[in-house]
């Protein structure tokens, strides 16, 4: 089969999507990941699957207000699906469900929805967005050939909320990474092997316990904390300001995302790993994050 996967960011640092795409490719299917991100010419294939960018031009992104840009990226995804001529459209997360539904309808492909979180249980900044997401899911999910979730709790809630005939398949975020030679986390931080190191792996974001961890670091004598992963837009400076406010710049560091091939070796150099989702929404109560595994 030819499978078009839709992703609202780059697949490079998304271990879940890479695992699914590579597993399908290894099983003999032709997999094309359509990304809302630039794809370098020398990186158009990865782990046995093909990558294509459906990112609107920079000029168009500058010209359009954000609500019109959403329509533009919808059209670009649909155009990418039509060009791929897939047998299956695999939509990752709620943002990809609408373009996936349109593309599947126009090409006659089957639609698979991969819910990485409980989309209706996320506290959205824009008023009405939760209602919109819930409406799209209510219309589309019962018509999907398959629905995938990351945890039993989210699977049960999706089936209950949308009266699905079949329980969604649970595909957990279990890592299949292999340790590369070396590592380098302590070297980048300038730490010796005897210094206590606490690791928050993955994008720092609001309500993920990042400020709690920074405050905890102020109570720890000599322990260092590192956030490994690109912060969600707008949050990095906020977290950095908190670190400076507590005078912890020498013991709490923010590092950008690294290649997945190096992630396990970096992780193994820490003494403690943390996942601190705060009880701010239903999605956090039911989630099963990558970093746990």
Helix proportion: 25-40%
Number of strands: 12
Sheet bearing the most strands, described? 8 strands, mixed
CA-based gyration radius: 20 Å
Uncertain stretches: none
H/E series:
EHEEEHHEHEHEHEHEHEHEHEH
The computed structural class is alpha/beta
Distance between the termini: 30 Å
Q: How large is the count of helical segments? A: 11
For the residues shown, what is the average pLDDT? 91
Shape: globular
Describe the structure.
With 293 residues, the protein is α/β, with parallel strands linked by helices. Helix content is 38%, strand content 18%. It has eleven helices and twelve strands. The protein has helices at residues 15-26, 58-63, 66-84, 97-107, 129-140, 152-162, 185-189, 210-219, 236-245, 260-268, 282-286, and strands at 2-7, 30-35, 45-46, 49-53, 88-92, 110-115, 146-149, 169-170, 197-201, 224-228, 252-255, 272-273. The strands form two sheets. It has an eight-stranded mixed β-sheet with strand order 3-4-2-1-5-6-7-8, with helices on both faces. Strands 11-10-9-12 form a four-stranded parallel β-sheet, with helices on one face. Helix 3 runs parallel beside helix 4 (97-107). The two termini are 30 Å apart. The mean pLDDT is 91.
């Amino acid at each position: 089969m030819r499978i078009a996967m839709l992703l609202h960011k780059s697949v490079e640092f998304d271990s879940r999507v890479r695992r699914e795409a590579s597993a399908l490719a290894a099983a003999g299917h032709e997999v094309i990941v359509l990304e809302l991100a630039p794809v370098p010419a020398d990186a158009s294939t990865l782990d046995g699957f093909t990558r294509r960018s459906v990112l609107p031009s920079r000029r168009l992104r500058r010209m359009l207000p954000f609500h019109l840009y959403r329509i533009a990226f919808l059209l670009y995804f649909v155009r990418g699906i039509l060009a791929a001529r897939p047998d299956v459209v695999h939509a990752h997360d709620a943002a990809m469900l609408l373009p996936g539904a349109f593309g599947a309808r126009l090409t006659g492909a089957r639609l698979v929805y991969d819910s990485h979180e409980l989309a209706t249980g996320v506290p959205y900044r824009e008023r009405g967005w939760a209602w919109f997401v819930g409406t799209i899911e209510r219309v589309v999910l019962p018509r999907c050939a398959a629905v995938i979730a990351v945890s039993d709790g989210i699977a049960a809630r999706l089936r209950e909320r949308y009266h699905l005939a079949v329980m969604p398949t649970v595909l957990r975020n279990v890592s299949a990474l292999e340790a590369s030679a070396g590592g380098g986390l302590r070297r980048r931080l300038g730490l010796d092997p005897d210094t206590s190191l606490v690791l928050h792996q993955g994008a720092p974001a609001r309500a993920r316990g990042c400020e709690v961890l920074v405050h905890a670091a102020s109570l720890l004598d000599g322990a260092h904390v590192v956030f490994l992963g690109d912060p969600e837009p707008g949050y990095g400076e906020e977290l950095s300001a908190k670190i400076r406010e507590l005078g912890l710049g020498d013991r709490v560091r923010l590092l950008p995302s690294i290649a997945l091939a190096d992630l396990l070796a970096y992780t193994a150099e820490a003494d403690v790993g943390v996942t601190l989702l705060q009880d701010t929404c239903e999605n956090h109560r039911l989630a099963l994050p990558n970093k746990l595994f």
